[in-house]
């Protein structure tokens, strides 16, 4: 499937707790000016009418009939059947709301709803980092190709998704890859999101800072302190991002143990990757221990930060050697150095989610 050559139109929605943004895509690109509306999150009837009105306004702008509606919506949800559960940031949704079936009745076209983490990684797998990495490996003369991608989003929460060989892993209950609930070896008594989120950076910084700060300060504020060497709380800010990176590296190590592929990071906190990525790499390429105290690598594979050109060059280098096939005079290529890569999203989470939503609809029509 080549989404960039597909002429079909799919209507999309970026659903936030405060605003809904409606659009439409064709050949992997937006074809209308996005329409923004308040979510009316505390009034179910008004919220649902807003969604219908938004898609109707998009449809009115199109010169051709859309073939589907596809978008990300918060969970928990029975995404396969388009039923939304009880939502923390959209309090009007309680007891199960058949959003997908409602939109199918209104517009008489298929409707696909998914988790934003799933659509983020799907967009990156089909139109972002995965094809880009494989193209760069071809240009570098490397025989290595990657088919598996784990994607995580860093922001208010910690989300994720997994693509294996072009297929999005959704799960039997539509809640696969709920990475936020995985465990943490940095803070064993907490789940992963408590160390990998906006509130984690706020908490870690405020617990170390000497000066008084508002409790609602944002990670960007902490980043600015970290970049100011004259600030008396510079060390506290740097340490908060280091701890964040260790927690992220711990979760990614667990995920990569299962997926054995590339990891892409998106979301609002990626702008601080220069502060958290070194600790994340150190954790992924670090050690774990037996009960006797003996150490072994945390991962079988070595992980490279391919945002760094020098690390990408090492990642892409051909380490293959010729080994003999026993009992014959033939040889076969063998690469003794398994390796993985982690990088930041160049598309950005919002665009990747849009591409993922578009591609998911086309694949399932």
Automatic annotation (TrEMBL):
Q: Which CDD domains match?
A: ASKHA_ATPase_ROK
Under the heading InterPro entries, the entry gives: ATPase_NBD, ROK
Does Transcription regulation count among this protein's keywords?
Answer: no
- GO molecular-function annotation terms? kinase activity
Give the SUPFAM superfamilies listed for this entry.
Answer: Actin-like ATPase domain (SSF53067)
UniProt keywords (A-Z) are: Kinase, Transferase
One Pfam family assigned to this protein is: ROK
Spell out the family assignment given in the record's similarity comment.
Answer: Belongs to the ROK (NagC/XylR) family.
Q: What is this protein called?
A: Glucokinase
């Amino acid at each position: 499937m080549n989404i960039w050559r597909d002429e079909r139109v799919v209507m999309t929605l970026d659903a936030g707790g405060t605003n809904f943004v409606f659009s439409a895509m064709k050949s992997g690109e937006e074809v209308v000016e996005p329409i923004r509306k308040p979510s009316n999150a505390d009034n179910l009837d008004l919220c649902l009418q807003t969604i219908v009105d938004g898609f109707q306004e998009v449809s009115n702008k199109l010169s051709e009939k859309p073939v589907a509606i596809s978008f990300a919506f918060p969970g928990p949800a029975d995404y396969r059947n388009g039923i939304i559960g009880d939502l923390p940031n959209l309090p009007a949704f309680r007891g199960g709301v058949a959003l997908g079936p409602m939109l199918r009745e209104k517009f008489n076209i298929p409707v696909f709803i998914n988790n934003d983490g799933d659509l983020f990684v799907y967009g990156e797998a089909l139109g972002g980092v995965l094809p880009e990495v494989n193209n760069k490996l071809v240009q570098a003369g490397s025989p290595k190709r990657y088919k598996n991608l784990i994607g995580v989003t860093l922001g208010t929460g910690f989300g994720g998704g997994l693509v294996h060989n072009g297929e999005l892993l959704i799960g039997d209950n539509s809640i696969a890859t709920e990475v936020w609930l995985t465990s943490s070896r940095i803070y064993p008594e907490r789940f992963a999101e408590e160390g990998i989120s906006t509130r984690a950076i706020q908490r870690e910084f405020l617990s170390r800072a000497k000066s008084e700060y508002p409790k609602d300060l944002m990670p960007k504020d902490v980043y600015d302190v970290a970049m100011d060497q004259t600030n008396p709380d510079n060390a506290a800010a740097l340490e908060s991002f280091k701890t964040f990176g260790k927690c992220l590296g711990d979760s990614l190590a667990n995920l990569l143990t299962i997926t054995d592929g590339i990891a892409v990071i998106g979301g609002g906190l990626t702008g601080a990757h220069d502060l958290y990525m070194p600790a994340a790499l150190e954790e992924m390429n670090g050690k774990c221990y037996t009960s006797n105290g003996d150490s072994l690598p945390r991962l079988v594979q070595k992980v490279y930060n391919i945002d760094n050109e020098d690390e990408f060059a090492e990642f892409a280098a051909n380490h293959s050697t010729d080994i003999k096939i026993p009992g014959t005079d033939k040889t076969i290529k063998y690469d003794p150095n398994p390796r993985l890569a982690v990088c930041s999203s160049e598309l950005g989470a919002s665009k990747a989610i849009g591409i993922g939503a578009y591609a998911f609809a086309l694949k399932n029509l």
